[in-house]
């Protein structure tokens, strides 16, 4: 569908189900003017003119940028490997095997009639 398969980029301890919404989220961030301002703010700082246009919740936009990173100078697949898997994934611990009982192989079970 979008050229990425979760089997291609398995991160030990993380699970995620492939969904088109992740790609749409990536594209939305690319078109977002406030996200572009956040990128510029983190890279070079904003001019006095640009500071006039920052949204009221710009601190949240900056926090989102800090979490998801640059989406403008990369392709989805690389961004997903760096940021998406951990942000949208679910951590888990692989199940372990535990002994419940020890069966002695020399004793044959009795058949009941």
Separate helix tally: 5
Strand arrangement in the largest pleated sheet: 1-2
Structural class of the helices, strands and pairings? Answer: mainly alpha
Low-confidence segments, given as residue ranges, are none
- Please tell me what the overall shape is: rod-shaped
The topology string of helices and strands comes to EHHHHHE
Percent in strands: under 5%
Number of strands: 2
Mean pLDDT: 81
Q: Characterize the biggest β-sheet.
A: 2 strands, antiparallel
Oligomer: single chain
> Helical amount among residues, as a percent range?
40-55%
Topology summary:
Blueprint: E1 14-15, H1 20-31, H2 33-43, H3 48-51, H4 58-68, H5 76-88, E2 90-91
Antiparallel strand pairs: 1-2
Helix pairs in contact: 2-4
Can you put this structure into words, describing what you see?
- It is a single chain.
- By secondary structure, the chain is mainly alpha-helical.
- A two-stranded antiparallel ribbon has the order 1-2.
- The model has no long low-confidence stretch (mean pLDDT 81).
- The chain has helices at 20-31, 33-43, 48-51, 58-68, 76-88, and strands at 14-15, 90-91.
- The chain contains five helices and two strands; from the N terminus they run βαααααβ.
- Helix 2 (33-43) packs across helix 4 (58-68).
